[in-house]
Amino acid sequence: MDQRGQRQARVRVRGHGRGARGRGVRMRGGGVVGRIQVSDEIRATIIDHVINHGLSYREAAQRVQPVLRRSTVVSIVRTFQNENRVHRLPHAGGRRNIFSVQQEAAIVDMVVANNAIKLREIQTAVIADQGTFQNINSVSVSTIDRVLKKNHLAMKQLYRVPFQRNSEMVKEARFQYVQRIMELEAEGPHTFIFVDEAGFNLTKVRRRGRNIIGHRATVTVPGQRGANITMCAAISNDGVLCHIPTVGPYNTERLITFLDALRH
């Protein structure tokens, strides 16, 4: 190896070459420090060591974890002496946020009100609304997606809920049911029997799975779907009293048969 190659090899070993960028530099105190952000607590500790206790810059740099460079300590102390501040200044570079806090809250309200809304629909609604978004003339779909992720909104599988479930009539029926149960409890000890049915199919499998990136996630299923099975069961404080599965739905005749079996 010639003399020039030996110099390049020494530079790479010391950690100052082009190939060592981002790996950190081993300091004399022992710790390895790369490009890190010094928190306000560590800055206050550094200033206390140097200003109040009279430590040198190098000694103060080695008293904290991770170990800092001497130049970093000099910069922190100089900032405190010249500007009388310990905390870091907020980030001011780059492009400012397009939406204000109130406008981001309005976008979140759109999604909360309509979980099936699309990014394109949000984009159209934002541009068309000249009240809340009067300063927004154009916005990209990716910007709206970042706003949603920032506010902890993620894409999920939609769960279908019948709109009758929370209607006024259903709410009143629930209230009357609770009132009736409370009246029975007040009259004396009763044995409550709850009857319910549920349908399922043996060929049902999970809709989501995992596999190596680039390969499909598959599961083995029968070639034909098969018939639906309905399970009707009755439970009480004593446990399961009766359960009868049947192929197909539970009609009036099958329900009467189930109640007869429950009595016996």
Tags for this entry?
Tc1-like transposase DDE domain-containing protein; Tc1-like_DDE_dom; Homeodomain-like_sf; RNaseH_sf; two-stranded antiparallel ribbon; 9 helices; elongated
Describe the fold and architecture:
- InterPro entries: Homeodomain-like_sf (IPR009057), RNaseH_sf (IPR036397), Tc1-like_DDE_dom (IPR038717).
- There is one protein chain.
- This protein is of the alpha+beta class and 264 residues long.
- It contains nine helices and five strands.
- It has helices spanning 3-14, 40-52, 57-62, 70-83, 101-113, 119-128, 141-150, 168-187, 252-263, and strands at 25-26, 32-33, 194-200, 229-236, 239-247.
- α2 crosses α4.
- The longest helix is centred in the last third of the chain and has 20 residues, at 168-187.
Summarize it.
It contains 9 helices and 5 strands; from the N terminus they run H-E-E-H-H-H-H-H-H-H-E-E-E-H.
Task: List strands and helices in order, with pairings.
Layout lengths: L2 H12 L10 E2 L5 E2 L6 H13 L4 H6 L7 H14 L17 H13 L5 H10 L12 H10 L17 H20 L6 E7 L28 E8 L2 E9 L4 H12 L1
Antiparallel strand pairs: 1-2, 3-4, 4-5
Helix pairs in contact: 2-4
GO molecular function: nucleic acid binding
InterPro entries: Homeodomain-like_sf, RNaseH_sf, Tc1-like_DDE_dom
Organism: Merluccius polli (Benguela hake)
